[in-house]
Design brief:
The complex is a heterodimer of chains A (about 250) and B (about 200).
Chain A lengths: L4 E9 L2 E2 L14 H11 L4 E5 L8 H13 L4 E4 L5 H10 L3 E4 L1 H5 L2 H10 L4 E9 L7 E5 L4 E6 H11 L3 E6 L11 H8 L6 E4 L5 H9 L5 E4 L1 H4 L5 H10 L6
Parallel strand pairs in A: 1-3, 1-11, 3-4, 4-5, 5-6, 6-9, 9-10, 10-11
Antiparallel strand pairs in A: 1-2, 6-7, 7-8
Helix pairs in contact in A: 1-2
Chain B lengths: L1 E4 L6 H10 L4 E4 L2 H6 L2 E4 L5 H10 L2 H7 L4 E4 L1 H5 L3 E2 L4 E2 L7 E4 L10 E6 L16 E6 L1 E4 L4 E7 L2 E9 L2 E4 L7 H13 L2
Parallel strand pairs in B: 1-2, 1-3, 3-4, 4-13, 5-7
Antiparallel strand pairs in B: 5-6, 7-10, 8-9, 10-12, 11-12, 12-13
The chains are: A alpha/beta (about 250), B alpha/beta (about 200).
Chain lengths: ~250, ~200
């Protein structure tokens, strides 16, 4: 049976992880490579690297990181953040990323999804969709851009459907209402998107305890769940989480 | 010498990286002579069937692949191309296995592609001597090979049981990605590289 995936997300700036990673196991707590290897050995099913490097000059450090991660770890990983053009995608895939995620650039130029899917294949094109509740939109959620700063005017569900039709292979769905709250995933939002499109949905934002993962899989119909700080701060241990989910009847690797 | 067949498909780098993690040197090549003289041949790939077959036919690689006698491993699209035909682009393939590759039907809540970790069941043959029943491996695909007499591992998705792996004489195929399947995948690759 297809397993539900657990995906740690690493924010990377100038080639190093941020968000106060605090692991005694690591020689260098800021090393994205070491952290990736650690999560991989803990049974993470995939990894997401989000490039939050502010300046274009330092973007090359991400390519170097992707190259070393691809050499060292044997599970799939996605690279996102600052990917705007075909060339950006080509650079990340040829460095060894399995998938790339596009966010604001795709919302501003939806044709980018068609171009990427036909050139590189849908399996490596992830749409990162940040949504915030807004009763003025038919689904109850609006897609927001630029890390939540800019309203897109797009209904989250219709944008998800459009992205799917244009060739996105997966949706990384982040709830801007829940992100950073540790209050649980946005189950309602996740269910609305996941049950209405026929590509996998990764739920993101709000993970605080192990039960939250169970709920977003069972009630939110998520195919995968992503979290950052609960893993980075060792509040949730991946082997323990998987054991808990297995005992709850959820298929995990 | 291990030859990895170079053609117009993606994800070849991940196979080269996996081989290097296993301490194996491999040559990435589309040279028929090098491929024919290799001890082991790996045929990876993520891509589209009809354009891949066109590329292989144009370079005479189809004939070379069919005639190989050394252990041969096709991965993902590589395995599908080893079959008789594919619904993807209505393509005639290499015909090493008699199967026809068919597309998952969407609907009833099943999502396509079949993406993620799924279990291997009814495994058989030397590639899986270090693998246990129900071990998880990583799949990403929208087309599949039905069960056949050459099925060497099965899995199930979208209400269909299909071939996760095919084996016939020196030819082996894996629908999943051993190079992205953590320890389980590395054990299988090691069997292919060291025991066959």
């Amino acid at each position: 049976m297809l397993a539900k995936r657990i995906i740690p997300c690493l924010d990377v700036k100038d080639g190093r992880t941020v968000k106060g990673v605090n692991f005694v196991q690591l020689r260098d707590a800021g090393s994205a490579l070491e952290l990736a290897e650690f999560y991989s050995s803990q049974g993470a099913d995939e990894l997401v690297f989000l490039d939050i490097t502010a300046t274009i000059e330092n973007r090359g450090t991400m390519t170097d990181l992707v190259r070393s991660v691809a050499r060292r770890i044997s599970i799939p990983f996605t690279v996102g953040g600052g990917i705007r053009t075909e060339d950006d995608v080509e650079r990340m895939l040829s460095a060894g990323a399995d998938k790339i995620s596009v966010n604001s650039a795709a919302a501003r130029n939806p044709g980018l999804l068609n171009t990427l899917a036909s050139r590189f294949g849908s399996q490596c094109v992830v749409l990162a969709l940040d949504a915030r509740s807004n009763p003025l939109f038919p689904s109850g959620y609006e897609a927001v851009l630029d890390g939540g700063r800019t309203p897109s005017g797009l209904d989250a569900l219709s944008w998800a459907r459009e992205a799917c039709d244009r060739g996105a292979g997966e949706i990384l769905l982040t709830s801007m209402d829940k992100d950073g709250t540790k209050d649980g995933f946005a189950v309602d939002l996740t269910r609305i998107i996941s049950s209405n499109i026929d590509i996998p949905v990764i739920a993101s934002g709000g993970a605080g305890k192990m039960e939250d993962f169970r709920t977003v899989f069972e009630d939110g119909m998520a195919d995968a769940a992503l979290a950052a700080s609960v893993f980075h701060f060792h509040e949730i241990d991946i082997p323990e989480l998987k054991c808990y989910l297995r005992q709850s009847g959820i298929p995990v690797r | 010498m291990i030859a990895v067949i170079k053609y117009n498909a993606g994800n070849i780098l991940s196979v080269m990286n996996a081989l290097s993690r296993l301490g194996k040197e491999a040559v990435l090549t589309d040279d028929p002579e090098i491929i024919s003289s290799a001890d082991k041949v790996i045929f990876p790939g993520v891509g589209e069937a009809s354009s891949a077959m066109r590329y292989l036919n144009e370079r005479g690689l189809s004939t070379v692949i069919r005639s190989l006698k050394q252990p041969f491993l096709g991965i993902c699209l590589g395995m599908q191309l080893m079959c008789a035909s594919s619904e993807e682009g209505d393509t005639e393939c290499l015909g090493i296995f008699p199967s026809e590759i068919i597309q998952f039907r969407r609907g009833a809540g099943w999502k396509v592609p079949h993406m993620g970790w799924n279990t291997l069941e009814n495994i058989s043959g030397p590639l899986y001597k270090d693998t246990k029943e129900m071990e998880y491996v990583y799949f990403v695909h929208s087309y599949y090979a039905p069960l056949s007499e050459y099925t060497s591992a099965e899995t199930e998705y979208a209400g269909v049981r299909f071939s996760a792996s095919l084996s016939k004489d020196n030819f082996h195929g894996m629908q999943f990605h051993p190079e992205k399947s953590g320890d389980a995948g590395e054990r299988m690759l090691r069997c292919f590289l060291e025991d066959l």
